[in-house]
Design brief:
437 residues, 18% strand
């Protein structure tokens, strides 16, 4: 685990923006008017998907993938200029938020600056042609980290951006040598020691494929040596299995508890229900009460919460990565804003950062029972993942409790509680007369 990692990241929320599709204009300047709303959701960090020029050769779709980068040191002219980008960052800072940019160091576009200037820095197939190790990614060519000059160039590039932004989300970080990331983090710390490092670590099946082919394939435990946060793709397969009803809720929660024990004590996971690579959660979950419960459960889990722009409106359409596909903000029929705002307030509690964490399944129903115990306080989370109403057994002193999310009162009598189908979070103190917070 990176010894500099600040566990206060567990109290924070990241909001992911795809500049091309966030507004009709698709520019940095056009997002600025939306910053007060985003801040109002309870957001600490804005993550911008890649902001660099996109390659023309072998382009996917009409507009191309932002992950097929042509020049790491320039701004995509469709989004604006370096000046308007810096203005955007300044406005984000005025709203007391930070900016994280995407770093894509596994590959470039086939017509990138580096391909033209340093073709020797690229992976070669047995026939000598440039290529990549994931055939479906035909619009990119992989970098070859056996060249010291490549390391110097990429690290100097990170130092350049570290003078402008607050952190990096590193694409498929598991496919890049850990020694590079460790050196990069140390070098960037000379520019900004508070830089935040988020790794897109990968599914274990994808990781094993690369290892079997004798390619770099870092586990999360290795990635944590240089990064503050990793994706929770290490357990995502079990989430999918639960959604497909292939495993029970108990099985899924047991996996999450197993995950909590296999990393260093100060580990931070990125918790998400959706992102630009995964389906919108609403495409799985149509019931609005169930959607609210899943949203609350995601926030309740130990780690940093991620919102993918539009998630707060319950959209089921995943914006196209390769074409202009603007989020239809005015067509939302669900609004989770008030719930997300209340979840953010809960997320600030010290117990979420430092407390003893537990998740278990209620007997015979699709209900998560979660808790954080910290000092003399226990925070309880009850999430009806099917959106239903259930009578459940809870390990809570008898009494009346106020739901922090909906201002309802819930009574526990003889260890039994009747849920209403809404997500529930409440707190109580120990060794004193029962108090609600």
């Amino acid at each position: 685990m990176a010894i500099q990692t600040d566990t206060r990241l567990r109290n924070q929320v990241i909001y992911s923006i795809y500049v091309r599709n966030h507004t009709q204009e698709g520019t940095f300047e056009s997002i600025i008017p939306d910053l007060p709303r985003i801040k109002g959701l309870g957001v600490d960090i804005i993550w911008l998907m890649p902001i660099h020029p996109i390659g023309e050769v072998m382009r996917k779709g009409v507009a191309g993938s932002p992950y097929a980068i042509q020049d790491y040191r320039s701004i995509n002219p469709e989004y604006g200029t370096m000046e308007t980008f810096e203005q955007f960052v300044s406005e984000v800072h005025k709203h007391d938020m930070k900016v994280m940019i995407d770093v894509v160091y596994n590959h470039t576009s086939p017509d990138s600056v580096l391909v033209h200037e340093h073709p020797e820095w690229f992976y070669r197939r047995p026939n000598g042609n440039m290529g990549n190790k994931v055939g479906e990614w035909y619009d990119i060519v992989d970098l070859d980290y056996s060249h010291r000059g490549l390391w110097d160039y990429l690290i100097d590039t990170l130092k350049m951006w570290a003078e402008k932004v607050d952190g990096f989300r590193c694409d498929v970080a598991s496919l890049v040598p850990i020694a590079f990331w460790e050196e990069a983090r140390e070098a960037v710390s000379t520019v900004n020691p508070d830089t935040i490092w988020l790794a897109e670590s990968v599914h274990t099946s994808f990781l094993r494929q690369h290892r079997d082919r004798k390619n770099v394939g870092l586990s999360d435990s290795e990635v944590y040596r240089a990064f503050d946060m990793t994706y929770d793709y290490d357990v995502h397969h079990f989430f999918e299995q639960y959604m497909w009803k292939e495993i029970t809720l108990k099985h899924y929660l047991d996996i999450l508890m197993f995950q909590d024990g296999i990393y260093p004590e100060n580990y931070v996971k990125l918790r998400f229900l959706e992102n630009h690579d995964q389906p919108r959660i609403r495409s799985y979950i149509k019931d609005t009460d169930a959607l609210a419960n899943w949203t609350a459960f995601s926030y309740f889990q130990k780690g940093t919460a991620l919102l993918f722009a539009g998630q707060e409106k319950g959209f089921d359409h995943l914006p196209d990565l390769f074409n202009k596909d603007v989020v239809k903000w005015n067509e939302a029929n669900v609004d989770l804003t008030q719930l997300i705002q209340k979840l953010y307030r809960f997320k600030q509690d010290a117990a979420v950062r430092e407390g003893a964490y537990s998740l278990r399944a209620a007997e015979g129903v699709e209900v998560v029972l979660g808790s954080y115990i910290h000092n003399e306080k226990t925070i309880v989370g009850i999430f009806n993942l099917d959106g239903g109403t259930h009578v459940i057994q809870v390990d809570v002193p008898d009494g009346s409790y106020k739901n922090l999310l909906h201002d309802e009162e819930y009574v526990v009598r003889d260890g039994v509680l009747l849920t209403s189908g809404k997500p529930i979070i409440f707190a109580y103190f120990h060794e004193a007369q029962l108090s609600q917070v």
